[in-house]
Amino acid sequence: xxxxxxxxxxxxxxxxxxxxxxxxxxxxxxxxxxxxxxxxxxxxxxxxxxxxxxxxxxxxxxxxxxxxxxxxxxxxxxxxxxxxxxxxxxxxxxxxxxxxxxxxxxxxxxxxxxxxxxxxxxxxxxxxxxxxxxxxxxxxxxxxxxxxxxxxxxxxxxxxxxxxxxxxxxxxxxxxxxxxxxxxxxxxxxxxxxxxxxxxxxxxxxxxxxxxxxxxxxxxxxxxxxxxxxxxxxxxxxxxxxxxxxxxxxxxxxxxxxxxxxxxxxxxxxxxxxxxxxxxxxxxxxxxxxxxxxxxxxxxxxxxxxxxxxxxxxxxxxxxxxxxxxxxxxxxxxxxxxxxxxxxxxxxxxxxxxxxxxxxxxxxxx
Amino acid sequence: xxxxxxxxxxxxxxxxxxxxxxxxxxxxxxxxxxxxxxxxxxxxxxxxxxxxxxxxxxxxxxxxxxxxxxxxxxxxxxxxxxxxxxxxxxxxxxxxxxxxxxxxxxxxxxxxxxxxxxxxxxxxxxxxxxxxxxxxxxxxxxxxxxxxxxxxxxxxxxxxxxxxxxxxxxxxxxxxxxxxxxxxxxxxxxxxxxxxxxxxxxxxxxxxxxxxxxxxxxxxxxxxxxxxxxxxxxxxxxxxxxxxxxxxxxxxxxxxxxxxxxxxxxxxxxxxxxxxxxxxxxxxxxxxxxxxxxxxxxxxxxxxxxxxxxxxxxxxxxxxxxxxxxxxxxxxxxxxxxxxxxxxxxxxxxxxxxxxxxxxxxxxxxxxxxxxxxxxxxxxxxxxxxxxxxxxxxxxxxxxxxxxxxxxxxxxxxxxxxxxxxxxxxxxxxxxxxxxxxxxxxxxxxxxxxxxxxxxxxxxxxxxxxxxxxxxxxxxxx
Lengths: 366, 478
Ligand SMILES: Cc1cc2nc3c(=O)[nH]c(=O)nc-3n(C[C@H](O)[C@H](O)[C@H](O)COP(=O)(O)OP(=O)(O)OC[C@H]3O[C@@H](n4cnc5c(N)ncnc54)[C@H](O)[C@@H]3O)c2cc1C
Hints:
Chain A has helices at residues 7-16, 65-73, 87-90, 98-103, 111-114, 117-120, 149-153, 187-198, 222-235, 243-254, 273-287, 291-294, 313-320, 342-355; strands at 21-24, 37-40, 47-51, 56-60, 77-78, 121-128, 133-137, 161-169, 171-172, 176-182, 204-210, 213-220, 239-242, 265-271, 295-298, 303-308, 324-330. Chain A is α+β, with helices and mostly antiparallel strands. An eight-stranded antiparallel β-sheet of chain A has the order 13-10-12-11-15-16-14-17, sandwiched between helices. A five-stranded antiparallel β-sheet of chain A has the order 3-4-8-6-7. In chain A, strands 1-2 form a two-stranded parallel ribbon.
């Protein structure tokens, strides 16, 4: 294991490496089959800048998420994209770091309103496979100066380089939140209710379905939340949960709690919300599965988590049939990247070859 | 502004190039009459002009591919063009290039309200995307002031923003997928209406790549349900510093207006003379807009009023009705036009951390005095995206050069305080040579490697974004 203490040491480690490396933060989101000598980033840790009035945070990549959450909470702020904690789902322990979140574009339920991790990332520093320290973006909210390598690094799972620093846009914690709980609907009707809510002017910040219930979240100023909840209930009546009870629901959805401790493989699907119920039914039918137990829908149905027996690959791909993407995050042959068209695969491989010509990083996952 | 010397080899083969394009494309798609190609000699950075060798205006992705295949085979540079409203010279041609305009490709391919996206050809104008969905209560959020004219193609290439991006984000945050043709003529679809593709985020790097990676022909865009209502307030102050502090306090309080626009005295005076919006004669004014139902708007505005009151504004006017709302926005929306009445102007676009607002405004004032050129400031204050407008006289010898030198000073100042050269207009030709102020050679090298992947022969919009010296070897300019 290599444990650099500074960007300079990291550059040195990569430039002098002669065999593949495996960039690692807390290891809570790593994909099992990636190989190489561990290059531990947790030595690069700490807050570089936090300006609450500018909603900006600059941190080193190995900084633990928990430390960031505490720092922000003291100023009544938070990471708007709600990064999931996947330890329970993937059966990992360890400490989640911001570098791992950025490199996996880990985004929770609020993505439907405020965007993904990639959208909150204002800048990055990273060291590529040639040992060059590279900076892209910055710390300001609007920046079109040069190509957006920040997006390229977001969700790249370390195949292009090792992140050393991430700049993020943060948001204020709203004063109120409520969740509308819709019970007793079929999957079709329950997902349709989510889509209707997302198509309403009520600024939905969460739309999920699990265990036979649909959940719709509203956040904001107290009066506004009350007003919108009332209007929504006129269109789909349900029980209302407030404050901590509401927050607990969304922590569970975010971390995919209904699938914790499950045997078999864990899949994540990205599909059109209107296709979700049909695709899930087709997949589960092949295995005698049941949506109450085996599926969690987020983003109004655009994101689906599934627990499936091993060997479901063909059934999953057949059900999606090109209308979306699926990745297996846990199980034999798990990989963070979905199969792509020949054109996109060729471009991705060529980018990998440009940034990592010696094949230093994350062999076996692109 | 230096441009690479046009290739005499290409110029000498002009007839052959045009003939090949004509043979492969419908006749009306290829323009080479010098009177007609003149129309394409510049974009909105009109200080720089150069007519292209020819212009191609395809009507489909397949025709774009045909045109690119021919240019690729003949080694002819191509400059993609949407509506030509770039303020950075991004669509400015060279004498040896073919301009490939997508203006004729403006169809809506599909609109899906249940899944909240629209699929359009890239030549469609920004405002007409909203136009296509508003009857169903939806809109497309990024709203550049040029939205009546600019095309989605240019918006994607520049990752354009708008007044309302404080809440809704810029183009990249609202783009789901594209169909694009690479310089060699291959068609690639990246992303799609379902969002995350689980792979390298190629879409993220294509957006904002200023027409250098491929010609975008179609796009899937996120559409959003329209809020129930919106209302602006106008708040006037006797000091820019205090106005800046008020902005910081609003953001700090956790209120997220959809827009916070800032105008300083030179700009207010110019717009008043031009548009008569009834603005007070003051040092700085803010236009703050909030959205929602009437009670929600009242709730937000009462908080904003309380925060503003702590800064002793000389005026706080809430729009009582639609007509007053229009008047409040009128001056802001005519600001560029008003400054244009006073003479030629150059519009800068650097972004700064909002905490540096008052320092930067003071420094701009000092630099303006030093250079003897007037500067008006009108900008998106919520996110620190400045728009200093430098007034100069194009007919006065040396004035343009002086204006550019002042512009460069101001942009360096933006970078110095932790900001960047461009918040939404792009680098293009205009800021190309300033890139080393913000980036190290290694940073620029990494960006150019991305272009190497998409366009190994460096034929797409080759003389933009990167300093000519840095890209010389790649462009074969030795
Ligand atoms: C009065 C005025 C106000 C403005 N206000 C704003 C504002 O508020 N916010 C903002 O962000 N910008 C603003 N702009 C700048 C400009 O309108 C934007 O940059 C816009 O997105 C350009 O779009 P266009 O279609 O005119 O592109 P063009 O000017 O034609 O081209 C711009 C760039 O896009 C590339 N390009 C064009 N088509 C394609 C394609 N099919 N594939 C790949 N690349 C392509 C070109 O090569 C060029 O580099 C303003 C401009 C003016 C004149």
